[in-house]
């Protein structure tokens, strides 16, 4: 059933695209983490990493996002922001909000797919 509701790429486990999105938009563009994103590879990588590796990378990425959030001063939220594929996010607040909505979208997909396969 999931195949009929979601495009094929969205039925793949959200490994690298999920962490890549946050690592790039928050890590590289706000926290200056040095992360280099290869978005195309995120969606075409055929290697299926172990579940423990996926969860570890996700936890590390969330920790980076939370640390970056905590470090923002009141004035930082309105600093100019630019990134590939986010022309509407012109300040840090908008960038964080877009990332939160995007993450929520993927969480919904994960919940739906986990119910379909169980």
Strand content: under 5%
Radius of gyration: 15 Å
Count of DSSP-assigned helices: 6
Order of helices and strands: HHHHHH
**Average pLDDT, to the nearest integer?**
86
Number of domains: 1
Low-confidence stretches: none
Termini separation comes to 12 Å
Main beta-sheet annotation: none
Helix content class: 55-70%
Helix/strand-derived class?
A: mainly alpha
Inertia-based shape:
globular
Total E-strand runs:
0
Structure overview:
With 118 residues, the protein is an all-alpha fold. The chain has one domain. 63% of the residues lie in helices and 0% in strands. The chain contains six helices and no strands. α3 packs parallel to α5. The radius of gyration is 15 Å and the shape is globular. It starts with a helix and ends with a helix.
Task: Please summarize what this structure is.
With 118 residues, this protein is an all-alpha fold. It is 63% helix and 0% strand. The mean pLDDT is 86.
Salient structural properties:
118 residues; mainly alpha; globular
Chart the SSEs and their pairings.
Elements: H1 2-5, H2 8-11, H3 16-28, H4 39-44, H5 51-71, H6 92-117
């Amino acid at each position: 059933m999931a195949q009929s509701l979601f495009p094929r790429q969205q039925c793949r486990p959200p490994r690298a695209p999920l962490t890549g999105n946050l690592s790039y938009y928050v890590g590289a563009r706000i926290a200056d983490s040095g992360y280099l994103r290869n978005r195309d590879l995120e969606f075409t990588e055929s290697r299926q990493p172990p579940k423990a590796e996926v969860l570890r990378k996700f936890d590390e990425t969330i920790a980076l996002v939370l640390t970056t959030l905590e470090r923002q001063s009141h004035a930082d939220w309105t600093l100019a922001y630019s990134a590939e594929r986010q022309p509407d996010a012109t300040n840090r607040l908008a960038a964080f909000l877009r990332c939160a909505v995007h993450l929520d979208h993927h969480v919904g997909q994960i919940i739906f797919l986990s119910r379909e396969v169980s």
